[in-house]
Structure formats: structure tokens, C-alpha cells
Amino acid sequence: MSCFKSKFADELIANAAYIGTPGKGILAADESTGTIGKRFASINVENVESNRRALRELLFTTPGALQYISGIILFEETLYQKTASGKPFVDVMKEAKVLPGIKVDKGTVELAGTNGETTTIGLDGLGERCKKYYEAGARFAKWRTVLKIGANEPSQLAIHENAYGLARYAVICQENGLVPIVEPEILVDGSHDIEKCAYVTERVLAACYKALNDHHVILEGTLLKPNMVTPGSDSKSKVKPEVIAEHTVRALQRTVPAAVPAVVFLSGGQSEEQATVNLNAINQLKGKKPWSLTFSYGRALQQSTLKAWGGKEENVEKAQKAFLARAKANSEATLGGYKGDAQLGEGASESLHVEDYKY
Amino acid sequence: MSAFTSKFADELIANAAYIGTPGKGILAADESTGTIGKRLSSINVENNETNRRNLRELLFTAPGALPCLSGVILFEETLYQKSSDGKLFVDILKEGGVLPGIKVDKGTVELAGTNGETTTQGLDGLGDRCKKYYEAGARFAKWRAVLKIGENEPSELSIHENAYGLARYAVICQENGLVPIVEPEILVDGSHDIQKCAAVTERVLAACYKALSDHHVLLEGTLLKPNMVTPGSDSPKVSPEVIAEHTVRALQRTVPAAVPAIVFLSGGQSEEEATRNLNAMNQLKTKKPWSLSFSFGRALQQSTLKTWSGKEENVKAAQEALYVRCKANSEATLGTYKGDAKLGDGAAESLHVKDYKY
């Protein structure tokens, strides 16, 4: 094997496969303190620990929702928080057979000499941090790299740096029992067409898998979190979900080895409904798909929930219903069975695109 | 798409998929003049054009053989030869539903500063040669890169050079309508275990697919011809199921689903070993998003050659021997081979020649 020998190998492989269980997917609830602050500001809620705790409790205790969720990505603070009645969130998850995950990167910094391209930091002491998180109950991790499409972007340097950073992060996670989600997000910003996005996505993913191979990562114990292949946000061309599905799956067929158990898409700036409908089209597509195709959505699972809640206790039940509706819709989408009938919560069709998005 | 836009795209995709048709595979009959000379001398036959022509006619007109084949790889001389009643071999193949292929590399040369590692040559004027071959009826090509396992081998240099040579050859083929078979053979020579072979195979294949992506090759219009993952020739043997498991896992870790078919080389395996191993792979229950078939040279022709021995009166028996192996391998692509092929003379004989050069 060109992969390294990990004492956690069997566990990594089992957990990665579990996350890709048909009918389930990931809730990305790992917004950093700064980012969640922006969300709160949009609904006039103060960014304090108790509010952050209250939001996550709202999500994790929604009746009937966790059956559609195989994993939840958390920010470090949340890993150690409890429900109002004193139960650790990780225990709530475990009892519902949901794997806790943890964001481990420390954001992006600019690459000198490029046109605003970035690399992701967080490798220093990562092994120690992973050990701690494993002890606290985490079983998978996430590290987001960001690339953009422009006249001369992404550059060879940006692709290389981000791919090799991801690979180093991935093997450190596996050494410490955490399934690494490999996330090479290509921002949707720009006026390029879908062919250009496909071209860049294939180039970036090919580089990622070469880097993962060089670093001896156990592919069966990883997950991929890519962007879907779509036209740029400023593109005049709007395309149908079937076209997005075709280009996306083809890009994956050309680059992602069958050993990877599941591909968990990010939603980028897509609205809740778009993200679901596109995932559904992907799962309806006839073609070779040797990996599960599911979701790892943040904004696209929480937008209407946030709006319905508005920070008020009396809105919790309503907000939880909104969350359940999106969770169920996306679960159906992983089976190609979504009929477009999810009760659209307020804002479900609203684009969630924010230019040059920073978590 | 990161693939270049080829006017031949649809044809390449259709031909590559056809070669991977379940129940079919490739006969590698592309031995160079020098190499076929060694085969002929082993059966005391003179190496002249007539005998080379006779042998290939024997193979291509063997009753029942062509239905088991989707392609035959030819050496340049053979592409222009005819049967004894004046019919072009390429026409015989086409009428039999078999795509003609052509070996386009010009052999290996040593890489300076390495421990006997090589790179493959043949890129100069390759585009024009491919055009000519396409006009003569060829629809796929083959280029053999060679790596070896040793203390410090394969080196990063040899992996890189061979992978990027393969990628350049591949895109030139596609520009000219030929489906490229990508062949990164890791020689079986050595005393290493199967794990070592697996690690090297995964590293080499990962490098190949990175190179193919860099060169904008249309993966749906290519084929892969790898070694199976086995212990070294000086190491104890393992069962076909173990070979199947390690081989398929290596492919799952490196070969994108867009590749329609994988056509294994037989290396030094005997006819029977090669068939059993292929059969075990096709029986394995696991993700296999590509056809798994054969591109066998020695492992399809060994008993045929021995039976023929250059004599006209042996042609019929020799053709039967070929049919037996073709049918066995056809069944192996479906995982239904029962091990009951009438073993011809030499079918169980190892065909390993150390440090094999075509």
C-alpha cells in the first residue's frame, strides 16, 4: 500500500463510510465566532456565548432531524458546550448516531506575489489538537482551502500550496483517529461559464489526489467536500440542475478515485432550494458514481431556520420545523427522490452568495 | 473540461468503450522484429517476413478467436501485411469486429545517473506516424513504459519521466484519432512481497493520472494496461484471490472512473495463471467502475507457438490452442472461468524472462 499504516485504519474507514450512508449527510455548523456574528447581525441577535449555544441547541435537538444527519461539523467552542439541561452536545449527537466533527484550520492568508490568492494555515501543533479533539468525542475534521477563478487564477502556485496543505492536514488527522474532510473550494465568484468551472475543478481535484497519494493518505478513510460545477455568480447563463449534475459528476469521474467512500458537496452561495435540487439531480444522473453523493451544508441548511428563530425563545419550535424541512429535503436528494415539495421557509429561495466569502 | 477538445472525441470514446466490452479483450501481437525472432528461434523457425506473416495469419484466422477479441495490437510491418489469399490483415480484423491497434513506441533507453532505469522514446514525429496509421486502419495505439522495483527504484525521476512521456504520447494519439493504451509496466523481477508491489503500483498510477490531467488527455478515450499486483518473481506465490484483492484496491485508489477499461498485461505469468488471476478479479465483490480485461501477448500465444512450430500441418491444432486461450480469457472477463480449459503444451509454464525487453 502506498498509504501509511494507521492504528486507526479500520475506524477511519468505517466512520468515513458511515458518513456517506444513503439518506444522510453533514450539517456544517462550524461557523467561527466572527462568522456566526455576521449571521446574528442579520437577524438582530447579539453575538454572545449563550446565543451561540442556544442556536446550536435549537439545531441539534430538532425532533426528527438527526436521523437525516450522519455528521455535524463544529467549531471548537461548541465541542465543549452543553444543552440548557446540562447534556454535552457531543453526547446528544452520539445518542442519535451522529458523528461529531471539528473545524481545525485557522483561516486563510494571502500568498505573496499572487493576485489575492490564499493558502490555509493551521498545521502547527495540529497533531496535538487532533488528539485533544478525539478525546472530546470528535471523529472527523474539516479544513477549508479556497481558490478563485480569474484571468490568471487559480495559479499553479495556489493549486500546489493548497493541495499539499490539505494532504498534510489529512495525514495528521488520520494519525490521530479523525477522518479528514478534504475541502478545495473554488469560489463561485466571477463571470465565467460552466465549462471554465469544470476545467478548473478537474485541474484542482487532480492536484489534490496526487498530493494525497504523495502523503500516503488512506483514501478509504477520507471524504471530499468540493464545490458543484456551476457557472460563475456573475455569469449571464443560468443552467438547469441536470446540466450542473452532468458537469459535476463528470469532473468527479475524471479525478476522484473509487476508494473515496463519499463526496459531500458544499453549497457555496446557493439558496437552500437550489442546493437541494442540484444534489437531487446529481443523484438521479445515470452514470458511473462509485462514491456516495451527499451534502455538507451550512448556510443552505440553516438560512430559513435562522430567520424563523430571530433569537427568540418563542420562535424555537417554528425554527426547528424549518430546519427539519431542509434536512428531510436534502436526505431525499441523496436518494434522488426529492420532489421539490419541501415547505419553503422564508428565505429558502434566497441566494446566499456573498462575494469573496470568508468563513 | 480539462480535456482538450478533439474532433475525434466521440470516436475515441466509442472505441475505448468497445474495447472494454464484457467477454472481449486484446491480443497483443505487436512483437518487434527482434522480439518475434526470439520466439521463432525457440521453436526453431527462421525469422523472415514470410514466417512472421504466417504466424499472424494463423492467429487472425483461427476459428472462434476473433469473437473473443475487441482489439489486436500490431507491429508496423503487420499493419500492411496480407493473408495468403491477398486480404489485408486489417480488413480481416475489421470484418471480425476487431479494432486494429499499433505499437508506436521505439523502445527504451537508459536514464543517465540511475541504476539501470529507463525511459521510452518515440515522440519525435509521432503525430505524423499516428495519422498514417489511422489511414491504414488503426484505431488504437500502445506505448510501453517500464519501471522496476529495487532498493531505490523506481526513482522519482523514472516515475516522472515515464508518466509524462506516456501523457504526451496519449494526447498526440488522441489528436490523430487513436485511442492510447497507457502502459506503465512495473516489472515482476525481484524478491519483494505483494505489499511492496502494491505500494509502487499505486505511486506509479497516481503519477500517471496526474500527468494525463496536466496534458489535457480525454480519459474516457483512453485505456490502461497495468501489471497485476503480485509478489516479485523470486518471492513465494500467492493465490489468485489475493492478487485480485491487491490489484483492484490499487486501481480503486488511483484510476478515475472515467477510464472505461483496464486491460492487464500478463508479464511473466503462464497462460493459465494469467487467466485465473483475471477471473478472480472479475469475481471480486467491490467497486469496479471500469471493465477489467486482458491485453495478453505471451499468455495468449505460448501454446499456439509450440503447437505450430512453423509447420503447415500443425496450423489447425495451433489455431485450436489459440481458441482455447481466447475463450478462457473471455470467460475470465466475466468471472465465469472454471479452470477447465484444455491445457495446451506449455499452458502452465511460466513465461518470465528476467528484465524483459520487447
Automatic annotation (TrEMBL), chain A:
The answer to keyword Cytoplasm applying to this record is yes
Q: Which Pfam families match?
A: Glycolytic (PF00274)
Q: What is its main location?
A: cytoplasm
Localization terms from the record: Cytoplasm
**UniProt keyword list:** Cytoplasm, Glutathionylation, Glycolysis, Lyase, S-nitrosylation, Schiff base
Catalysed conversion reaction = beta-D-fructose 1,6-bisphosphate = D-glyceraldehyde 3-phosphate + dihydroxyacetone phosphate
EC number(s) per entry: 4.1.2.13
Pathway listed for it is:
Carbohydrate degradation; glycolysis; D-glyceraldehyde 3-phosphate and glycerone phosphate from D-glucose: step 4/4
Query: Gene3D superfamilies in the record, alphabetically?
Result: Aldolase class I
PROSITE patterns named in the record: ALDOLASE_CLASS_I
An example of a GO molecular function for this protein is:
fructose-bisphosphate aldolase activity
Q: Does the keyword Lyase apply?
A: yes
A Gene Ontology CC term for this entry? cytoplasm
Choose any GO biological process term that the UniProt entry carries and state it: glycolytic process
Entry similarity comment: Belongs to the class I fructose-bisphosphate aldolase family.
Q: What is the recorded name of this protein?
A: Fructose-bisphosphate aldolase
Q: Which organism is it from?
A: Arabis nemorensis
From TrEMBL, chain B:
Could you tell me the Gene Ontology terms of the biological process aspect for this record? glycolytic process
Question: Which EC class is the enzyme in?
Answer: lyase
Any idea where this protein resides? Cytoplasm
Principal cellular location given in the protein's record: cytoplasm
Q: Does the keyword Lyase apply?
A: yes
**Biological pathway:** Carbohydrate degradation; glycolysis; D-glyceraldehyde 3-phosphate and glycerone phosphate from D-glucose: step 4/4
**What keyword terms does UniProt attach to this protein?**
Cytoplasm, Glutathionylation, Glycolysis, Lyase, S-nitrosylation, Schiff base
What EC number(s) is this enzyme filed under?
Answer: 4.1.2.13
SUPFAM superfamilies xrefs = Aldolase
Provide GO CC annotations from the record: cytoplasm
Reaction(s) the record says it catalyses: beta-D-fructose 1,6-bisphosphate = D-glyceraldehyde 3-phosphate + dihydroxyacetone phosphate
A Gene Ontology MF term for this entry? fructose-bisphosphate aldolase activity
**Family membership:** Belongs to the class I fructose-bisphosphate aldolase family.
What is the name attached to this protein's record?
Fructose-bisphosphate aldolase
Source species of the chain: Arabis nemorensis
